[in-house]
Specification:
Blueprint: H1 2-107, H2 109-131, H3 134-151, H4 157-171, H5 178-190, H6 211-214, H7 217-232, H8 248-270, H9 274-291, H10 297-310, H11 322-339
């Protein structure tokens, strides 16, 4: 019995040693496996870290380049800002000057507009008195009325009323087409050099040959002599015995005097002088009928144009707007006296 107990006691430690050995082996294998896994992870971590460090270096280098560009841009921007600040200071000073000038002009705005209105009404009055140009005077008065309308001052309504009355009177004046009249007169004047003289365009009657004159050599010789004589000496029949024969020099002066008459007629039309206008046209028509060939188409056309021009009146009553001009001057003088 004692032997069995001893055997059992010696058997148990051997089993425990074996179990401990196996557990140690298992622990070693597990520890080694963990070490290998740790080693692999450490190597992978090192690779990742090296890759990221390389990327970080590239980023740092790129950032340094960009930082240099940014610094350069900042310097340029600072220079521009300095320039803009100086320009802003100049513009502010100019703005202050302009604002003061604007305030000065705003205080004198009424005076400026009244001065412009006076100039426009004065120009309209001169157009009516000197040239009788109703359209130009009407445009000037309409411009003056527009300036007074922008001013919108109740104290100046009487001026607008007077100007509108003058505008209505000028619109009622009959229209004279001085441009068309001048055009037709210039057309006649341009054709003066083409007008044939009456003394230079007369038909020549050629001798007729009869059958009896054709027969015989002697008759033919006599007929040829007669033809040669008629060519060298021509006898013309003039229906108006008083018609003068003009030399080339006289013909030149005739055409120039006729051209001057037409120019004088055009000036009469522009100045609305109906007496001078009609007298010059009548003289021109009389000269054309007396000295030039009435059978010529050019002469007929010029006479027709002159007759049409004679029926176009150019005179008109002179419109007086001096009262409106005096009213504008009084209003301006009162305004200037009020400022003083």
């Amino acid at each position: 019995m004692t032997t069995e107990l001893t055997t059992s006691v010696t058997t148990k430690p051997s089993k425990l040693y074996k179990l401990f050995g196996w557990l140690s082996i298992i622990a070693f294998i597990g520890t080694f496996s963990l070490w290998l896994q740790y080693r692999h992870d450490d190597l992978q971590l090192r690779r990742d870290l090296a890759t990221r460090l390389n990327q970080a270096d590239r980023v740092v280098k790129q950032s340094q380049g960009e930082n240099a560009q940014i610094q350069e841009a900042i310097k340029e921007a600072n220079h521009r800002i300095t320039t803009l600040e100086s320009q802003l200071a100049d513009s502010q000073s100019q703005q202050i000057v302009l604002q003061s000038m604007y305030q000065e002009l705003a205080r004198n705005r009424d005076d400026w507009i009244l001065a412009e209105v006076e100039q426009l009404v004065d120009a309209a009055n001169q157009q009516l008195q000197l040239t009788g140009n109703v359209q130009s005077a009407l445009s000037a008065l309409q411009s003056a009325d527009m300036r007074l309308q922008k001013l919108n001052k109740p104290s100046l309504l009487f001026l607008r009323k007077a100007i509108n009355q003058d505008i209505d009177r000028l619109r009622a004046v009959p229209f004279v087409d001085t441009t068309g009249i001048s055009k037709h007169i210039d057309e006649v004047a341009a054709s003066i050099d083409l007008l044939p003289l009456a003394s230079d365009t007369r038909p020549v009657k050629k001798p007729s040959l009869t059958e009896q004159n054709k027969s015989g050599a002697l008759s033919r010789i006599g007929q040829e002599l007669l033809i040669e004589l008629t060519k060298s000496v021509q006898i013309k029949r003039i229906d108006t015995p008083e018609l003068p024969l003009l030399s080339p020099e006289q013909s030149f002066f005739l055409r120039e005097n006729l051209r001057l008459r037409l120019v004088s007629a055009r000036l009469g039309a522009l100045s609305h002088n109906n007496i001078t206008y009609e007298a010059d046209l009548n003289t021109a028509e009389e000269w054309i009928k007396h000295y030039f060939d009435l059978a010529s188409p050019v002469v007929k056309n010029d006479l027709q144009i002159i007759q049409q021009l004679r029926h176009a009146p150019v005179n008109m009553s002179v419109q007086d707007i001096s009262a409106t001009l005096d009213a504008v001057r009084r209003a301006r003088s009162q305004k200037e006296g009020g400022h003083r």
